[in-house]
Amino acid sequence: xxQILRGLRDWLSGFSAAPFVTKRRVMTIIAVTGxxxxxxxxxxPDVKKLKKTRPxxxxxxxxxxxxxxxxxxxxxxxxEWTPLSSVSPYLIKAVLIAEDDNFWEHEGFDxxxxxxxxxxxxxxxxxxxxGSTISQQLSKNLYLSPSKNPFRKFREAVITWRxxxxxxxxxxxxxxLNVAEWGDGIFGAEAASRRWFGKSASDLTPIEAARLAxxxxxxxxxxxxxxxxxxxKRSELxxxxxxxxxxxxxxxxxxxxxxxxxxxAGETETQNEKTTEPAALSDKNAASPEGxxxxxxxxxxxxx
Length: 304
Prior knowledge:
By secondary structure, the chain is mainly alpha-helical. The chain has helices at residues 2-17, 20-43, 59-70, 89-99, 111-124, 134-143, 150-166, 169-179, 189-197, 206-214, 229-244, 252-256, 261-264, and strands spanning 78-79, 186-187, 281-287, 293-296. The protein is built from 13 helices and four strands. Helix 4 (89-99) runs parallel beside helix 10 (206-214), helix 6 (134-143) packs across helix 7 and helix 10 crosses helix 11 (229-244).
């Protein structure tokens, strides 16, 4: 600390002895920087309002409406607000497993996830994975465009930080589940549940919840009720993690089914052994009995 203070003192002494022109340039740079920071701060949304107020039309909703208008498509946004207490706990758990497994621990940014995403992007030579948390996704959905330009990402980071400092985790999750896109023009868990399964979000089964969570990376491409291989594999693995964590009890048939002849002969796995899932997104909190992480398949390229 003494060395830092001594260095600062020496810098100030040198600055005082500097020519007047140099001083003026430095002060001008500081003043301009301050003005730019002030202007940037004024352009940021007031996230404090989100504590008690429901957000209106989000940036993502406006983007969809613009796309429809450009293509002369007559369509309307579908959304039904529902409190977190009225959302199936299965859907809440499935979404957290699929999108942000460290949600309750991090402060808006999952640095480990970012590193993993960066490694994937480097190895594939494409920008596919972003490592975004639910808080970051909420910032983008509410206020920003899907663009990947650095300035937009910087705004996203600042808004995310402010939301994490201002709102509770439960409120962030509630907002996310009400504005997340689950199909072309379908926003929020309630509208999605009624559209795809004909029931309220409070009545979703574990498998239905897993299927809805599975399509979040690209909800306009994937159908949660369809037979697309990606949806089937991803939802199956989300469901498997839910079972392993005790969120969902094992199917009755799985527990009571008699052993086959091959199992009795020891040619298959025992009850305490399980096959290794395909590698990709790891389930950090639920390892298999052999210590192999449960994983999810690679996410598709994000929606542009």
